Each structure stands twice: as C-alpha cells, then as structure tokens.
Amino acid sequence: MYKLADCSYESKILDPTCGSGTFLVISMFNMLKEIEGLNINDESKNNLKKAVLQEGLYGVESDMFNATLSDINMMLHGDGSSHIFKDNCFNKLPELKDVYNRALMNPPFSQKDNELKFIYETLQNMEVGGIVSAIVPISCILSAKKTKSTVPENLKYKRLILENHNLLQVIRLPKKLFHPNASVQTAIITIQAHTKYSQATKRKNFLDDGYIESRNIGRTEHHVDLAKKIFNQEKW
C-alpha cells in the first residue's frame, strides 16, 4: 500500500479510518528506513526523522477503544506526537484539508456509510495531486448486475470519484485475505486527487498471491516467486 501510493519520507500520510493504526505504523517504519539510507550526516537524518514523527502521520478513528489502541501503538513505536483524532472522519476531514498528500485506508465494509463515500471525502480534502490507496469490496467497483455497484449511493460516489479524480490502478486481491470479512472479495484501488484522466487504468490480477489456505494454520507460503510474475499481468 505504501509503495502503491508512491509514499516517501517526505509524504504527509493519513489513514481516515485507522483502527489500531497498522497502516500508520508500517508507514512510519518505511519512512524512517528511507531516511536512514540517505547519504547525509546524522544530524540531518535526526532532523528528518523528527519531522516525520511530528508532522508526517495522521489518523482518524471514530471508535474510542480503537482510537486509544492506535494512539498507544504509535507512541510505543516512537511517534511522540501521535496525531490520532478520536472523531468521525467526515467531521474531521475538512479540518485536515490540504494537510495530507497521501492516504492509505481500509474503510469499514457494509456499514451505514458506503465504502466509496469514505474514499471520495478523503480525496476531496487532499492536496492536488495526492494519492489514495484503499482496500474495498470488489462489488463496489464492478459493473456487473446484482453487485453493490448497482446501489444508487454506490453509483453516486463512483461517478463523483471518476469525474473529479484519476483512477490509476486496480488490483484484485486473493479470496479469504481479510478476517472477519473472509468471504468478501476485495481489491486495492489507487486514485490521484484532483487530476484529469491521462492514461488507461492499470489492472492487475493478484487472486493467486503465492499463498495457500491451510486448515488450522491459515495462509502459508507456497509459490510466491510464480505469483510475482502473475502480478505483473495488467489484466483481470
């Protein structure tokens, strides 16, 4: 997700539905690792790391328990500022307008608000040219009959996203990847904010990621090298 959104240590990264903060912690590790690899002196590295920890990571979570977990998770991993806001993201996003230029998110499935609404509002309040990578049910984006894509609200937000932003890439993910939504087929969509369509959307099939489901064990590595080759195919 971090790479898909073209993140770097210079990014301002938001997770508007951050849960326990997993995306933010992983992003922090990646950002600090990049800084450590720069050919600069230690003082400059420390200043850049300080900037990441103070200004580079933001999270919003409406559930008090999860927000507290995220706050603790970030602080335990070295983020002394921990910009975790205990709020509804639809209330908080306008206050964060143009603060962030990257967003990594996994909006809650099958809730009151449509998954694409979370993505649209995140895009609307993002810097021009910023990038969102989000995990969504594949029913949100397919046009086939009898999918969520035919629901009026879903059609509304899909249209708004495509009219105002640029869909860069869609990656179809393996089945049974996420618990407790193991039965929901998912995809990662990557979208650039406030930019016009300029080239064909990349489509990648990652249904087979090289892991197999083993009873009482879960997902185990099987043929990862082959799966990487499959991933390079840009079609469903």
Automatic annotation (TrEMBL):
Keywords: Hydrolase, Methyltransferase, Restriction system, S-adenosyl-L-methionine, Transferase. It comes from Mycoplasmopsis synoviae (Mycoplasma synoviae). Residues 3-206 form the DNA methylase adenine-specific domain. GO terms for molecular function: DNA binding; hydrolase activity; N-methyltransferase activity; site-specific DNA-methyltransferase (adenine-specific) activity. It catalyses: a 2'-deoxyadenosine in DNA + S-adenosyl-L-methionine = an N(6)-methyl-2'-deoxyadenosine in DNA + S-adenosyl-L-homocysteine + H(+). Pfam families: N6_Mtase. This is site-specific DNA-methyltransferase (adenine-specific). InterPro entries: DNA_Adenine_Mtase (IPR051537), DNA_methylase_A-5 (IPR003356), SAM-dependent_MTases_sf (IPR029063). The keyword Transferase applies. It is an enzyme of class 2 (transferase). PANTHER family: SITE-SPECIFIC DNA-METHYLTRANSFERASE (ADENINE-SPECIFIC) (PTHR42933:SF1), SLR6095 PROTEIN (PTHR42933). Its EC number is 2.1.1.72.
